[in-house]
Write a structure and sequence with these properties.
By secondary structure, the chain is mostly beta strands. Helix content is 0%, strand content 44%. The protein contains no helices and 31 strands. Strands 1, 2, 3, 6, 9 and 10 form a six-stranded mixed sheet that branches.
Length: 416
């Protein structure tokens, strides 16, 4: 008949030991003597077969009198326990017949000794006896050691382009696997080792974390991990009034609206990469070279860059016309009191306006030539032309209108 034996509890911690060593240390060396053999047909921890590197040890009180190291999970373990050597008086270096057998398991993956075991005796006894054999199965339950709370480390906050955050946690259980639980949400993460980085944390949320060991032991909650809201990306600047270059001003200017209402911002112009720093929702960009198309982005105080504005076209600067060219001057005659002048070199496209000096008389027309009539005799004139863009030419050369020739007096009749 199988007998169920509950073995007394003892828990200590230690580091993982390589297969060339053992966690437990026997009190005897060499081959030992008068062995009692223990044949463990099954050894489990939390229902799972002991793994490579785990150890099962036989104790007499505090003395380790036999060890087996797992090299093939699930295979029978054979443990030879050595009796006390009578040739070493004053030193107890083995078991004493009649003493109660104690068993311990070393869980190498978690780095702990487990001494609360259930042993099912298949044959033999749990009292030490020289030359005896015992066949048994062992099952162990990992004792619960409450882990420390996870320690919140560096929090990588959301950025303009990344909507989520991450947090580095440390102080996690050094041995075995663990499960982190995130609050709020209840999301879990399984891993091993003392550090872990939790990713994809929603912006604008405060989180805490607990950690569970494989034995089901739960830590206190971590400190708060505060994830900021994601910085807002500003809207594209909106183009307002464009002031084009003029005949006298070679550059244009532009009013931009819709800039960030709070904090400082930086405008960046394309092409050229020129930057301007300011604040407020509107700004006038000046000194834009003529004959180019521009876009603008704005970077807010959080470093977020807007989409580009619409295209802003700055026209080429209008050209001033050349001075009118003085051609044929028709002088006053005896019969015609006024003169006229043929002007050429006038703007070939669009309408234009001639201005006469002195007097300020104007003449509007089109085409490259024009004859100015009714020029007062005895006067010197010059002319400027204003083209359709409003640009005024230099003055023409002088147009000298002679005085009208005088008619002779009537002949005087003399002696007939």
């Amino acid at each position: 008949m199988r007998r169920l034996l509950l073995i007394s509890a003892l828990l200590t911690g230690s580091s993982l030991i390589s297969l060339s060593q053992t966690h437990f240390t026997r009190v005897w060396t060499g081959n030992g003597l008068n062995h009692m053999n223990f044949n463990v047909t099954s050894a489990t921890i939390d229902g799972t077969a002991c793994q490579t590197g785990d150890e099962v040890a036989v104790f007499d009180g505090s003395r380790c009198v036999g060890i087996a190291v797992v090299t093939s999970p699930g295979a029978t373990l054979y443990i030879a326990a050595s009796a006390d050597d009578p040739l070493t008086p004053g030193v107890v270096d083995g078991f004493v017949s009649g003493d109660t057998v104690l068993l311990k398991i070393w869980d190498a993956s978690q780095g702990i000794e487990i001494t609360t075991l259930q042993a099912v005796i298949l044959s033999g006894s749990m009292k030490f006896a020289e030359g005896a054999s015992t066949w048994l199965t062992l099952s162990a339950t990992t004792p619960c050691i409450t882990p420390g709370a996870p320690v919140v480390g560096t929090i990588t906050q959301p950025t303009c382009s990344v909507a989520t955050a991450s947090v580095s946690l440390s102080g996690l259980p050094a041995g075995g696997t663990w499960t982190l639980t995130r609050s709020p949400g209840g999301t879990t993460y399984t891993g091993s080792g003392t550090t872990y980085t939790v990713t994809d944390l929603a912006a604008g949320t405060t989180y805490t974390f607990t950690v569970h060991t494989v034995a089901g032991c739960e830590s206190p909650a971590s400190g708060n991990a505060v994830v900021n809201t994601q910085p807002a990306t500003p809207a594209a600047p909106a183009a307002g009034t464009i002031t084009q270059p003029t005949c006298s001003l070679a550059t244009g200017s532009l009013v931009l609206n819709g800039l960030p209402a709070s904090g400082a911002w930086t405008l960046t112009r394309t092409p050229g990469g020129t930057t301007t720093t300011g604040s407020g929702t509107t700004y006038t960009v000046s000194n834009l070279p003529a004959g180019a198309t521009y876009t603008f982005t704005v970077t807010n105080a959080a470093g977020c860059v807007s989409p580009a504005s619409g295209s802003i076209v700055v026209n080429a600067q209008p050209s001033a016309p050349t001075a009118p060219v003085v051609g044929t001057i028709t002088q006053p005659t005896c019969a015609v009191a006024a003169g006229s002048v043929a002007l050429s070199g006038l703007p070939a496209t669009g309408g234009w306006t001639l201005t006469r000096t002195p007097g300020g008389t104007t003449y509007s027309g089109s085409g490259t030539t024009f004859t100015v009539p009714s020029l007062t005799a005895g006067t010197t004139y010059n002319f400027t032309v204003t083209n359709a863009a409003g640009c005024v030419s230099p003055a023409s050369g002088n147009v000298v209108v002679n005085a009208q020739p005088s008619a002779p007096t009537a002949p005087i009749v003399g002696t007939i």
